[in-house]
Write a structure and sequence with these properties.
Blueprint lengths: L3 E6 L5 H10 L3 E6 L4 H7 L3 E4 L25 E4 L1 H9 L3 E4 L7 E9 L12 E8 L1 E5 L5 E6 L6 E4 L4 E4 L11 H12 L8 H16 L4 E4 L4 H14 L3 E7 L7 H12 L3 E6 L1 H8 L5 H23 L4 E3 L4 H4 L27 E3 L7 H10 L4 H4 L19 H21 L7 E5 L4 E6 L2 E14 L7 E2 L4 H14 L3 E6 L13
Helix pairs in contact: 5-6, 6-11, 13-14
The structure holds xanthosine-5'-monophosphate (XMP).
Length: about 525
């Protein structure tokens, strides 16, 4: 059975981060909501369980709880923040609310550790930990000892070594906690006895074998967008079944300059597969004629995309298997309920009822994005494709503000290509999470040579971010901005002014539409 650790999600904001940290230590990890039946956990027979944090108070009966039977299975458990309080509460300790604000702690906190506790063994006896709590444990359950304290928190960590139950009030998974990842490693290797069997090479071999077994001599069709996830899925499927794979690439003419050709060349040259490209810019533009409402544009582009795609599949490939590049974060069921579904862009699509495949293959469904990239690199995908910036599904359609015409798309593509070229040349691209040009549809007066001009304005958007939920506008040096402005105005027809977007998210969004 695959060595697995379960992250039991009580609605904490760091649940995915915890799981990624565990996997960084080569231990396969799954996030399950706190509503998962105990029977399911017993079936998985995990080497260990980690309770996440959460926004609630354990003594509130409406807050997420779990059957105390979980503590009797003999499986090591590490409770983090709310998870630690839950453990204390369930096993007879006491958790109280810090009405006095001096006891609640937020942020970096000086912490003293008992280094004879397995979690803290061979680590410094004092260090900074990252705290975020209002409630605190003031009495540990029978059989537990206090293993860390802070100036305000009597129980910053607790342990019952005999039963392999551990709790930490702070967040070892965030970088601000000094040696936090060592503490997690100790839990995985010293407490749970993990061996570290989760390796990307093994994942590739096992997945290739599994795909071959499932598919037999049938065909598989995959919708390829040129984005990271579908590209890595294509590479993996190609390795498994070669020309039994058909990739359908819908080029709606709203990609960046030359991008459609780049995708085609990459896949036809580097991989064994059938590659079908559908060029349909004209069709898309005719549907978009006269439309300038952002939501309506998105709707038309989305609907048209699936029409073109499924019509092609229906005509030529409507049997065998359907593959898609779903990744793990697309399908994690959160412990927070619907409120947690902040992410609206995802990879899973529904197959129309009249197309009957024998099954759906999602070879990346258990991987986090960084693991998907690692697999892509191992399979020989070009570095720039694997590390591609996010690109919206509706493509440049949401960057050409107002009505989309072939000419305006071309203007935007040219300006955007200069931005990319300059950023790569000066090496600043790696400082940025995402950058692109927007064509707002504003005309302004200018002067070129001796003549008056009345032409388009373009805006440069560049952001830094960890997760795209929030983002800072990038502080690009003036010198680079100056070069960009010169080149764009000199080289791109119909552009006579360049502005730089200095709005963070929130209140702005990354895209303009
Ligand atoms: P916003 O504009 O919402 O963008 O701050 C956050 C990130 O999501 C990307 N984005 C999209 N990705 N389909 C996608 O797959 C979309 O419709 C879409 N809209 C925005 C955006 O580029 C940024 O990285």
């Amino acid at each position: 059975m695959k060595e697995t650790v379960i992250v039991l999600d009580f609605g904490g904001q760091y649940n995915q981060l915890i799981a990624r940290r565990v996997r960084e230590y080569n231990v396969y990890c799954e996030i399950l909501p706190y509503t998962v039946p105990l029977e399911r956990i017993k079936e998985i027979a995990p080497k260990g369980i980690i309770f996440t944090g959460g926004p609630n108070s354990v003594y509130d009966p409406a807050s997420p709880h779990y059957t105390p039977e979980i503590f009797t299975l003999g499986i090591p458990i590490l409770g983090i923040c709310y998870g630690c309080q839950l453990m204390a509460h369930a096993l007879g300790g006491s958790v109280i609310s810090a009405t006095d604000r001096s006891v609640s702690e937020y942020g970096k906190t000086e912490t003293a550790y008992q280094t004879d506790c397995t979690l803290f063994e061979s680590l410094p006896a004092r260090g900074i930990s990252w705290m975020s709590h209002r409630d605190y444990i003031n009495e540990v359950p029978d059989g537990f000892t206090v293993t860390a304290t802070t100036a305000h928190c009597p129980v910053a960590a607790m342990a019952n070594e005999e039963k392999k139950l551990y709790g930490v009030q702070f967040h070892p998974e965030v970088n601000h906690t000094e040696h936090g990842s060592d503490m997690l490693r100790h839990f995985l290797y010293r407490v749970c006895g993990c061996k570290g069997e989760w390796r990307m090479d093994d994942f590739i071999d096992a997945t290739v074998a599994q795909i071959r077994e499932q598919v037999g001599d049938k065909g598989v069709v995959l919708g390829l967008s040129g984005g990271v996830d579908s590209s890595v899925a294509a590479a993996l499927l190609s390795k498994a079944i070669g020309r039994q794979l058909t990739c359908v690439f819908v080029d709606q003419g709203l990609m960046r300059k030359d991008e459609g050709d780049y995708v085609e060349q990459t896949f036809t040259k580097l991989f064994d597969m059938n590659f079908v490209r559908i060029n349909c810019q004209e069709e898309f533009l005719s549907k978009l004629r006269g439309v300038s409402d952002p939501e309506e544009k998105r709707r038309i582009i989305g609907t048209e995309f699936y029409n073109v795609f499924w019509n092609k599949i229906r005509d030529s490939y409507g049997s065998g298997f359907f593959a898609q590049g779903t990744i793990y974060p697309d399908r994690i069921e959160s412990g927070k309920g619907d409120a947690a579904k902040i992410k609206t862009h995802h990879n899973q699509v529904g197959v129309p009822a009249d197309i009957r495949f024998e099954g759906v293959i999602e070879p990346l469904k258990d991987l986090f994005k960084d693991e998907v990239r690692a697999v892509g690199e191992k399979l020989g995908l070009p570095h720039e494709l694997v590390w591609r910036q996010p690109f919206p599904g509706p493509g440049l359609g949401v960057r050409v503000i107002g009505e989309i015409t072939a000419e305006r798309v071309k203007t935007l593509q040219e300006a955007d290509a200069i931005l990319r070229d300059e950023m790569e040349k000066c090496g600043y691209a790696k400082e940025l999470s995402q950058f692109f040009v927007v064509l707002p549809g504003v005309k302004t007066v200018g002067v070129m040579g001796d003549a008056r001009t009345y032409d388009e304005l373009v805006a440069i958007r560049a952001v830094t971010t960890d997760d795209f939920m929030t983002a800072d506008w990038a502080k690009i040096p003036y010198e680079i901005l100056g070069r960009l402005s010169n080149r764009i105005i000199n080289e791109v027809e119909h552009v006579n002014r360049v502005v730089y977007d200095i709005t963070s998210k929130p209140p702005g969004t990354v895209e303009w539409e």
